[in-house]
Amino acid sequence: MRAAVRVATAVGASAVLAGWILAAVSVPDSAWVGTLPSVAAVWALTLLHHGYLLGREWAHRRRRRASRERREAWAPGAGIRPPLDYPNVLRRPPGDVPVGSQGQYRATGIRLAVLPLLAVLFLTAHTVFLAEGGGLAVGFVVAECLLLGALVWTVWTEQDPSRPWVTARVRAELFRREMFLVLAGVGPYLGRSDADAALVRDARTTLLADADPGALDRFARLADEEPDGGQRDWRDEVWRRAGDPVVAVPGDLDDRMRTYLDHRIRRQRLFMELAAEKCERSEGVLGRTAKGVVLSAVAIAVSYAILLAAVPDGAGPPFLTALVAVLAAGLPPLCNTVLAVQNLLAGQRLAVSYRETRLELLGHENALRRLLGRPGNAELAAAFRALVLRAEASLTEETRRWRITVAKPEFDAGL
User: Fold this and answer.
1) What is the pLDDT of residues 106-123, one digit of tens each?
2) Closest Cα partner for 81 from 262, 221, 206?
C-alpha cells in the first residue's frame, strides 16, 4: 500500500512537471517560464525522496530472498519451545516502528546531501547557458536560492533528527531483553515467585513504554540502584545467591536453556551477520561510486581544458563545451554528496560493531552448549543465569555502540 502511494506521488509530480513545461513552451516570457526551475527542483527532490524509500523496500525484499536458506537453517526444531510458552513472558507491545523511523531519517539526510549539488547545477546552468538574462535565467537563480534556503531551514529546524529512530530501536531492544530476563529468572526477577515476577514485569514494561532517552539509558543498566546511590550488579547477585533456597531451580531448566540458545543467541548472531553484510555491501558501493566520480571529474576537467583551448579568441564556446562546463562544475559536489551519504549510513563502523558482537555471541553459544545435558541443579541454574547476563551485556553494549554511531545532534550539510 505504501509503495503504491509513493509510486502515485512520483507519477503525479512528473505529470505536474510535464504540464508546466508544456505551458512554458506554449506561453514564452510568462510566469510559467520563470517558475519552471523551481518546479523542476521540487520534482527532483520528490522523486529522490520516494525513489529512495521504494528502493529501500525493494532491497529489503531482495535481501530476504537471498538470506532465506540461512534463516531456514536457523529455525529452531519442533521440540524447542518458543519464549512465549513460558510463564510471564509477553510479546513486545505495539508501538514505535524502528524501520519506519530509520527510513524517514535517512531519506531526509540524503535529500540534504543532494541539495547543494542541485544548487550548483542550477547556478552553473544559468551562468553558462543564460548569461544574457531573461525570465528563465531569473528562475534558475530563484530556484537556487530556494534550494539553499531549504537546506538551511531543514538543518536549523531538524534538531536531534535521529532521536525517533534511536529511541524506537533502543526501546524495542530493551523490550526484547526483558522477555529473556523473565525467561531466565535473572536481574529483577531473580528469586521471585511467578506472581511477584508478573508485578515486576508489568511495572518495568510500563516504565519502558514511556521512557525518554535518559530513562532508557538508566533502564539499560544490568544493575539495581541501591538506596545510597550505589549499584548492585545482576551478575554478582547470581553467584551471591546461588545457594539461596528462595532462588529455585526451574523444573524445565533444560528447555529454557535450549530456548535461549536458539531464540536469543543464535537468532541475534544471524541478525548481526546479515546486518554486517548489508553494511559492508553499501559501504563498498558508495566507496566505489565516490572513486568513480573523482576519476570522472578529472577526465571531464581535462576535456574541458582541451575544448576551451580549441575555441577561437573572441568566440563563444559551442554547446558541447558549455555542456562539459556544467559537468565539470557538477562532479565535485556530486562526490561530496556521495561522501555525505556514506557518512550518514556509517556502514563501515556499524559492520565492525556487528562483527564484534557476532563473535561474542558465538562464544556465549559455545559456552551454553557445554552446559546442556548436565544435571539440573543449583550450580547449573546459576551458570546458565550468569551466561544469560553475559550475553545480554554483549547485546546491550552493541546497542550502545550503535547509538553512538548513528545518533546526530543535527544533519551534516556542506556547500
Assistant:
1) 999 999 999 999 999 998
2) 262
